[in-house]
What we know:
This protein is mainly alpha-helical. Helices cover 51% and strands 4% of the residues. The longest helix is centred in the N-terminal third of the chain and has 24 residues, at 111-134.
Amino acid sequence: MSAEHAAVAAALADEITARLTDPNDMTKGLESASTLPGTLVSLGRGQSGIALLHLARSLVDPTAITTAHRFLQRAREGLSRQELRQSGIYGPLEGLGFALELTCRATGDYASALTTLDAMISRRVCAVTATLHADPIGSVMRFDTISGIAGIGRYLLLRQRRTDLEAVLDALVVMTALRPYRNNSRVPGFWSSTPPTSQFAPPDQDWSAGHLNLGLAHGIAGPLALMALAVIEGCEVEGQRAAIEELAELLLSQSAKDEYGQHWPPYISLAQWQGRASTGRRGRSAWCYGTPGIARALQLAATALDSTHLHASAENAIAGMLDTPPPRWQTEHWSICHGEAGVLHLLSFFEKSRIGVQVSKARDQVAQRIISRFADNIPTFRVTHPDGPHVDVAGYLEGAAGLALALDAYAGRAQAVAWDTALLVN
């Protein structure tokens, strides 16, 4: 890491954080810009995620913990006014629980509030896992990191809610198995019966039979990462290790190669799954989709299974990405989710590998690109909006709070909590 880049990155993180200190400003922006239920509270776009930034920075700035408490209080007030239909670690209920648990670990506060949330989340886990056992094929929102049980499972692992976590792991093991589907096909239970909605769904494919999502945010890399993390932390159920191996090999089998090397498309159509069409084109390389998130999931699987093969596969994937011209990464934004901040942070997990020198050089280059974006102007970050690469976004997953956290980590600053556990990468 370049000392000069680190110093500038730390200064930029300070300036960004200074714009995210008043819950009143953030609340006005959230209320005026978003129509999504739960956004005001959520870890991804709301106060819970902004609280996480200040909590993490409390070792650098002792006054930051007071700011974190103000955002958490506003989030708790907002939770009582929100409909709780939206689930997952980036929804209002589990997202607030995640932020409260990390705060509780750092300060001892919110234990009673967490007990109340745990009871509510436990009822949700019971209902969702029963549905998945009965009929696993449906929307990705039932199992993914953002809205489904993979993300909820990360909260349960953090909280050491073993009974509920084992129910989640059991459901994911069951979903790994192949089952009959259309046109005499057999597909994993993670198959989505609905078409993908992203610009990365090529129009030359027939998506009417649904798709297999490969990404860490919405696809099979999320359940893989959760099951691996659970093994690493000492919680596993029958069939879990076999399921980890099967999902890891499934991801490897669905990778593609172009003139720059290995990559993953975001989705696989039924024709592609059956081998009647070529594997999809290169998509975004970020946390949500593509090589960085998938390679980290494979690396976690390698650690859980003590697999040199999977370690090598994950490192080879990152090496191929770094050989690809950055414009082909399609990281047009600076965020954690689908932008450069996520790439900057995920690459850190490969700095101690055999490609560490190449990775460190790439991280400096990514940091420089981020810094250059804000050289002439740092926005106020008072508005959160779900779409658009150039909006004034405040939150953790798609906005300035996550960016500041990634910059602080890159700069080597001590951080009070493992804020990246919400990404299923740690």
